[in-house]
Records
---
Amino acid sequence: MEYREILRIIESEISTMPYSGKVASYIPELARIEAEKFGMHLYCIDSGHYHFGNSEERFSIQSISKVFALTIAMSLLGDTPFNRVDVEPSGDPFNSLIQLEYENGIPRNPFINAGALVISDILISNLEDPKQHFLEFIHKITGNNSITINTKVYESEMRHSHRNAALLNLMKSFGNITNDIEAVLDFYTFQCSIEMSCKELSTAFMIYANKGKLINNEIEVIGPRKIKRINAIMQTCGFYDEAGEFSFRVGLPGKSGVGGGITAIHPGQYAVSVWSPPLNPKGNSELGMYALERLTTLTGLSIF
Ligand code: GLN
């Protein structure tokens, strides 16, 4: 079946689909987003772009930024970040404190909040201007220099980040945070408040589908061995306590964010992004997951 036809089917199914999910409200500024927004953008290595809906409207990428943070950390330091953060699925919510206590301040993986906060700490220690470096990395992999943060979302989360502060304090008590808590919280919240569209996210994620190379000029951003590892962590940990369900239903490595975005890749084939703000109880976009499930079902292709 043709991708154009497949997206047309998904679009018509989504337009009448009931949903029970709720737009994230624990960051008050995110609660203002219209629940009805829906965008999908598929970028195929061989045949280019397919899209529908609000696929060019920017939204808060939130935890999808954790993939970029890990990529920067691994390109600077190879495997050494894994001395401070593990690569096992957590089976717990993204902001859970529970495992950290009995696992001595070592987060299960870099895609839950605790693990991403450790990666933020590592980036602060190793980069002169981590915020600028982070934005420049995204500019490089998208070819778009206008991507930046939403200041209101950043400020809103900073005023409501007691739980992330708790994670940082607990990890610092175990010696797994080296910088000031405020500095790490600030940088982490900054990266989460970056806004991108489905089209921009799919373009950025082409490096994970294309063995670490930019799609337009084949310049290598990060080596294939590291890409293999990052994709493996997306597969096993990209959806918190729903990573198994996402593998089961969709069958692709991917990453979600509480802004309602999900980006997934099929190595050697494509990157695909969806945006629909209502989240299921596990904090993942309800209709976004449905659309991706339909994509791999209708194409008959997944990594399995
Ligand atoms: N900035 C959000 C937080 O720390 C990111 C969470 C997410 O997207 N799952 O709570």
---
Amino acid sequence: MTITRFAPSPTGMLHVGSARTALFCWLWAKRQKGTFILRIEDTDRERSTDEAVEVIIEGLKWLELNWDEGPIFQTHRFDRYKAVLKELMANDHAYKCYCTKERLEALREQQIEAKEKPRYDGYCRKFPAQPHADTPYVVRFKTPEEGSIVFEDLVRGRIEIQNSELDDLILARSDGTPTYNFTVVIDDWDMKVTHVLRGDDHINNTPRQIHIFKALNAPMPAYGHMPMLLGPDGKRLSKRHGAVSVLQYRDEGILPKALINYLVRLGWSHGDQEIFTTAEMIEHFDVHNINVAPTALNPEKLLWLNQHYMKTEPEVEVAKQLAWFMAKLGIDLTKGPDLAQVVIAQRERCKTLVEMAEKSRFFFEDEVVIDGDLTKKHFNREAVPALSDFIQALEAFPAWDKEVIHDALKAAVDKHGIKLGVLAPVVRLAASGTMASPPIDMMLWLLGKEKTVARLSDALAQLKELA
Ligand code: GLU
């Protein structure tokens, strides 16, 4: 059975690159009807925080990347790591190293001066010491000195590393805490992980981890290293490129489905298909089809996808997400129309939920604030008689529907022989405070009779004041 895992270190935000790794692991598990595990690699106590754990969990939940097992915390497994460490030492696969910081620093300097790659020279392996009982030590792995490690990377194909390139890595620090390369092996082994998919920043760790698997006689997973993500300018991705955290995308008004669709295409493709339902992704995703080449982020494409999903997702679903942004603006949703109807009215003209919330607040607020420049441009005395008739007609209607509103507007301009272009901007501006609002009949219908009549009457009074 296929078992994948997402194993973030909780040291910061949930990065877009990590989210892609999580998605690929999740998809491969789903495709193979396997299991997806969430493991929190929190052994680095100085850099790990509870807040970062929460951010990871919140981000995965928002993206609906639900895990079948976990979250499993490495800090809960220290006893197990200790037991395996003992076993490795007993079987002569690991040894205590008493080298001091000073010695290691001097060694490093010498090597750099001699233009060699800095590495541990195996001193304590060659000359086992019998120091005083409380001399501090680290535990190092005895990396085979001869031969090489070969593995078939799922993304990059065959990789071979000479063992002479690797030094004896530390398995446990002087305070007894285990290191990443060690815990990850024990966990992948105990959790029966079959596929390790992770960023290619880990590619140098893989041969080291394989050595530990071999020393433990444990079955090895298959490895696949994801290509690096680049900024839109083709440079290494960094904060200066704007949003790189999943929750930041959420806060900027991106729908989770749009972000998932965006992520899946970062380094993976299926023909030239751009839009994928979750079911299609699961059906077509294959770890063997992941690209080797680095992929650049494309914010325009994300916005395009977002608008696509805002237009095509059921309005009730979009409304659920929109409600969060309305709440952030302090809007009381009981004071206006059904939010799903607002989504229908607005979705053609908004690229993000933030934009949709901003453009829809006028439906719920008691009053609209109209920009002075806009009134100067669009409010005009010529519209007074028609506007007055339009208000009267609206007030007189027993029913409130789009068609009646539309007919009354037309009747008012026809009666006074003015162009629709004279009255319509006044109505639009008075009702919504902006010129970028939905079609007038739809907008007034959603706004309701009371607010419409009050806002138009205010505008009428202002128009009458104009010279
Ligand atoms: N904890 C590692 C990280 O966040 C990932 C380790 C792995 O996937 O093997 O980079």
